[in-house]
Design brief:
Blueprint lengths: L3 H18 L3 H19 L11 E4 L2 H4 L12 E10 L7 H13 L2 H6 L9 E5 L5 E10 L3 H11 L10 E3 L17 E3 L1 H12 L7 H6 L12 H17 L8 H11 L6 H11 L5 E5 L4 E5 L1 E2 L2 E5 L8 H22 L4 H12 L1 H21 L3 E2 L6 E2 L3 E2 L9
Parallel strand pairs: 2-4
Antiparallel strand pairs: 1-2, 3-4, 4-5, 5-6, 7-8, 9-10, 11-12, 11-13
Helix pairs in contact: 1-9, 1-14, 9-10, 9-11, 10-11, 12-13, 13-14
Length: 405
């Protein structure tokens, strides 16, 4: 078990690791400029969709503040956004809405060159093959009139109740009624913004922190690198997953990692304490229930804002996904234990390089070293008694005794 000094100093190292995983401001701005251009084109005068007030907003990790930069700089960032429409023509089905959006996108030569054809199950995708190296998945959706006011009220009150009011209806080619259902109530339901509020409640140390989500749920969200401990934990876990599975299609999916981490988080203020607790507790939030469809007991990870949805619904038919999840959980626990058992900066760094990426870890330790130099210059540098790790906790270190290790 770590002492408070060790915990604080490992926490500082992991915080720096988390910062290296943040996307850059230029990447953030490029993504926002891209989907803003699309939103403007959909809403422009003459568009068949203009009267339905299209608006594009971030969802997923771009909204939650848990995006993780790829270890390989040639890999693409995945930006998920929702394109909301307030209503539709009475006769439009999901098929109609999806294709009317697609046809409008194809009507702009700049956008057309970026479109991935054929379209995805739910989204239209724009791929930027230039130096930006990202793609944007645009999800067409329907909301009721006045939805924006409901969302703004929910963000102001930060209420746990009322998630249902934030649900949206989306297009999905795999639904049996994709070409037939004209009633939005019959379309697949999703709730990215309700989930965002739930995640923010789980992550926040105080309810006053809800302002950061209000800033994120905007067509042009503010860029920031100031993250809460839970956000850092999710980034660190996702990086470990990416390093371990290296593009394997059966790797643990981000929504399961994010949900279980948020369920497990106990308001720790230190990233290392939060990480240890989350990794230990995550498996306890995986339940079981009988599935009439599969005629057996299956694993159950409920969507916290839609309890009817099981995030592990693919596990019964794709058992490798379940096997890989438990394999990953065992490995991440072992890697963290191994790191926290190390003494001395070189050994700690080496223990982190394989599971989290050598480049990211080297950069994190470089930044950590810069922080130590600043502490030394102000006379605040200290050393933990057991690990010998330098930081702002432990016994004071005289200026001449620091040699940059």
């Amino acid at each position: 078990m770590l002492t408070s000094e060790q915990s604080k100093q490992f926490g500082d190292i992991l915080e720096e690791l988390g910062k290296t995983l943040d996307i850059t401001k230029s990447q953030h701005d490029a993504a926002v400029t891209s989907y803003q251009f699309v939103g403007d084109w959909l809403a422009r005068e003459g568009s068949p969709l203009a009267k339905y007030l299209p608006e594009i907003l971030p969802q997923g990790s771009f909204l939650f503040g848990t995006m993780t930069r790829p270890e390989n700089e040639n890999d693409e960032l995945d930006i998920d956004v929702v394109c909301r429409f307030e209503g539709k023509q009475p006769e439009w089905t999901q098929f109609d809405l999806k294709n009317i959006v697609g046809n409008r996108l194809k009507g702009n030569e700049t956008i057309k060159k970026l479109l991935v054809i054929p379209d995805g199950r739910r989204c239209w995708t724009l791929r930027y093959a230039d130096a930006s190296k990202f793609h944007v998945d645009i999800l067409p959706s329907l909301v009721s009139s006045g939805y924006k006011l409901v969302l703004e009220k929910s963000l102001r009150t930060f209420a746990a109740a009322g998630y249902e009011e934030l649900a949206i209806r989306i297009t999905d080619k795999e639904e049996s009624n994709y070409r037939t259902a004209i009633e939005p109530e019959a379309w697949l339901k999703s709730n990215p913004f309700g989930y965002g509020i739930w995640f923010e409640r789980q992550a926040s140390l105080t309810l006053e922190k809800s302002a950061r989500l209000s800033e994120s749920v905007q067509p042009v969200p503010a860029y920031g690198t100031d993250k809460l401990p839970l956000q850092r934990v999710v980034q660190i876990l996702k990086r470990h997953r990416d390093m371990m599975f290296n593009g394997d299609k059966d790797k643990p999916i981000s929504i399961i990692i994010t949900t279980l981490a948020a369920m497990s988080y106990a308001k720790e203020t230190n990233v290392s304490d939060a990480l240890v607790n989350v990794v230990r507790t995550m498996p306890t939030h995986i339940g079981e229930l009988y599935s009439p469809v599969h005629r057996k007991v299956v694993k159950h990870i409920p969507n916290p804002v839609n309890l009817e949805e099981n995030f592990a619904d693919k596990w019964p038919t794709e058992p490798q996904k379940e096997a890989n999840f438990y394999k990953w959980m065992g490995q991440v626990a072992a890697d963290i234990d191994r790191t926290f058992a190390q003494t001395g900066m070189d050994r700690i760094r080496e223990s982190l390089e394989k599971p989290f990426g050598k480049n990211a870890v080297i950069k994190a330790f470089s930044n950590y070293g810069d922080n130590l130099r600043r502490l030394r210059e102000t006379g605040a540098l200290k050393m933990a008694a057991v690990t010998g790790v330098l930081g702002n906790a432990g016994s004071s270190v005289k200026e001449h005794s620091f040699h940059g290790r």
